[in-house]
């Protein structure tokens, strides 16, 4: 609270007073020049309050980025820049286009605001995908985006996807010609055209006439079949004549069937949670276990079921109760927190936890 009071005091001193001075300045030209300078300073100040993040794969695997549960780039890419990040950390999930590669969960951190940080996505010696910090530069010194780089502005709503419908025609022409008693000549021509691509097949056959009767005939048959091919596109420049349908925003489900209140953006992945439990289980002292469990929650989020599993690693009831109180603010599906009660041996602990939550 003291920190916030000091912050707003600084804002009043640095921002409000100069503005009042500008509008009370009796010299119009000085007022205009001063106001222009103030606008430049304010613009720089706003830029300094955001960050950019560049993510790329070393081996060219295409991926999509999910920040705090919201999809950022609609189509998988190999190099993505996300601008306008105004928070010091985000829960990030890398979804690979090749579903066999799965996904990668990690925490995106910024030590300072006003920087562009670059991370690489690669495989470690175990063959697991990890992220590695590469570099960071002030936004004012950041180089221009490469033509092959996808740049998106951070958004709390998923990007729409467009569906285009293209018409493709197939045509087939058959011509039959017969002449005189010397035989029948049959010419067969077949053509298939898709877009600008096409081909022709010609067949000539000769045979004997029938009963010496001289005849001449010609028959031409043309059949055209039209059908539609639907493709997905995220470009706003949809060719004329194509149909565009905006899809529903993509949603990420972390707890099946849960639609209640959410206490934090994105819970830990099963792999990270298993590592956390093994670390806690390896310690001999109760206080050490509790300290590690709390440390993890400073930058991570759990589900109610995961909290209950962690409580099972403690030996003493008072330790379980202390951690259950601490973990409530770091739980994704807080509407399911009643599941934590199963980890307690005494009803008094359940009552104590409920009183804490109700406050």
What does this molecule look like?
With 359 residues, the protein is α+β, with helices and mostly antiparallel strands. 28% of the residues lie in helices and 33% in strands. The chain has seven helices and 14 strands. It has helices spanning 2-24, 28-47, 270-281, 286-297, 304-311, 317-328, 347-358; strands at 51-57, 63-67, 70-71, 79-85, 89-96, 103-109, 115-123, 129-138, 150-153, 162-179, 184-194, 197-207, 216-233, 245-246. The chain has a five-stranded mixed sheet with strand order 8-7-1-4-9, with no helix packed on it. Strand 2 (63-67) and strand 3 form a beta hairpin. Helix 3 (270-281) packs antiparallel against helix 4 (286-297).
List keywords for this structure.
single chain, 359 residues, alpha+beta, five-stranded mixed sheet, four-stranded antiparallel sheet, 7 helices, 14 strands, elongated
């Amino acid at each position: 609270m003291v920190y916030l009071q000091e912050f707003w005091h600084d804002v009043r001193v640095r921002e409000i007073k100069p503005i009042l001075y500008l509008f009370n300045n009796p010299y119009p030209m000085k007022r205009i020049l001063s106001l222009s300078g103030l606008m430049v300073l304010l613009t720089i100040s706003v830029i300094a309050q955001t960050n950019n993040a560049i993510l790329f794969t070393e081996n060219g695997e295409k991926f999509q980025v999910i920040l705090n549960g919201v999809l950022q780039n609609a189509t998988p890419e190999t190099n993505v820049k996300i601008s306008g990040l105004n928070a010091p950390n985000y829960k990030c999930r890398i979804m690979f286009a090749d579903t066999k590669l799965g996904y990668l969960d990690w925490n995106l951190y910024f030590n300072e605001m006003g920087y562009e940080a670059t991370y690489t996505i690669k495989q470690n010696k175990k063959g697991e995908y990890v992220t590695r910090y590469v570099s960071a530069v002030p936004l004012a010194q950041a180089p221009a985006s490469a033509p092959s780089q996808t740049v998106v502005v951070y958004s709390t709503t998923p990007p729409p996807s467009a569906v285009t419908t293209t018409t493709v025609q197939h045509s087939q022409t058959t011509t039959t010609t017969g002449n005189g008693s010397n035989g029948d000549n049959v010419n067969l021509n077949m053509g298939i055209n898709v877009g600008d691509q096409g081909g022709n097949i010609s067949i000539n056959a000769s045979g004997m006439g029938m009963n010496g009767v001289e005849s001449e005939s010609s028959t031409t048959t043309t059949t055209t079949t039209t059908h539609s091919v639907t493709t997905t596109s995220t470009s706003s420049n949809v060719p004329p004549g194509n149909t565009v349908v905006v899809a529903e925003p993509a949603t990420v489900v972390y707890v099946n069937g849960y639609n209640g209140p959410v206490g934090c953006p994105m819970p830990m992945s099963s792999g990270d949670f298993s590592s956390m439990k093994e670390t806690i289980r390896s310690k001999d002292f109760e206080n050490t276990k509790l300290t590690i469990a709390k440390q993890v929650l400073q930058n991570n989020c759990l589900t109610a079921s995961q909290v209950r599993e962690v409580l099972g690693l403690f030996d003493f009831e008072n330790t379980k109760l202390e951690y259950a109180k601490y973990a409530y603010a770091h739980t994704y599906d807080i509407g399911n927190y009643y599941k934590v009660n199963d980890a307690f041996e005494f009803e008094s602990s359940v009552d104590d936890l409920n009183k804490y939550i109700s406050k």
